[in-house]
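Holo prediction. Input below; ligand is coproporphyrinogen III.
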Amino acid sequence: MKPLLDVLQGKSPSRRPVWLMRQAGRYLPEYREVRRKAGSFLDLCYSPSLAAEVTLQPLRRFDLDAAILFSDILVVPQAMGLMLDFVENEGPKLETVNDSSGVKRLDAANAATSLGKVYETVSLVRQQLDWRVGLIGFCGGAWTVASYMIEGGSSDRKRALAVAARGEVWFGDLMEKVIEVSVEYLCRQVEAGAEALQIFDSWAGDVPAVLREAVVLAPSRKIIDGVRARHHDVPVILFARGLGRGHADAARYCAPNAMGVEQGVSLSELSVQLGEGVAVQGNLEPEKLLSGEKEFCGAVQAVLEDAPKGRHIFNLGHGILPSVAPERVTELVRLIREHDGV
Ligand code: CP3
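Structure of the complex:
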């Protein structure tokens, strides 16, 4: 009945589900308007009525199959006690953790409870959502979140990688705390009305092969297992960006309901490796939404033709860019529906 949930549960959908990472955001004038009203990005995240409003904005404009909670992966470290700010045109600035005493100071026990405004947003969105549209909750992958906690903001992640490579005990403790809070945080989103979950491990591709199991795969598996222990049936999408040929391995290890993949990965090849049980999500290159008409259409067709029938959730390979014209998204959805004849 809901195409997104049907695909995630292995049922055949009435149509191919489509949603876009960062579908609520600066490329929409109505988002910029609400954002101005809210004051700052974080004020917007913590104002349930405004956050619900921007969550729903893309659904009003486009014929999409999912809404994604409007928030950010970095509210988790903030809730653990680190100072967080989003600086205009610079991105996030997060207080850092550099040693075991820093890790000890993090409050894992109360962090998820203190994010009540986020759960309020989830339930407000759920009340207003069309019955055919799925509601996705999310958290960051433990590696991606921990890397921001070590680096303090957007970076090349060299420091965090060095800490992980040295096998520092405090790094392991930090990861465990992030995992613990993430499980509780996702469970509460489900209890508030989220119907599917996505783990955004955007920097998974940075991690060298020797560290991949410890730093990327095992933590995501722990988050997924932890959530399923409480909510057996909630479907999980694992977006471990940049694994390339490693996505099939990651899916075997973590057992998500769908693998989200970056551009350049063949969805048909991956789907054969995954088998019927795991769907694929992706993977139009975000920059193609800025290309000329011919290149844009060609790229969309290529994804549509490569994707496995009935086992595909259309998305981009990463978040939509702020410079995209909203009309391009209208056209994207039209091209997908036309191709599928629905
Ligand atoms: O997808 C959605 O529409 C849901 C909301 C969402 C946001 N961030 C809103 C946001 C989600 C799921 C995220 C995830 C997120 N946040 C990730 C993982 C996915 C990815 O993009 O790789 C990461 C790494 C972050 C951290 C983060 N948040 C950065 C580095 C930045 C600054 C860069 C930027 O795009 O501005 C943000 C800010 C942010 N998060 C914005 C939005 C809409 C822009 C804030 C604004 O309005 O100024």
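The chain is about 50% helix and 15% strand. That is the main takeaway for now.
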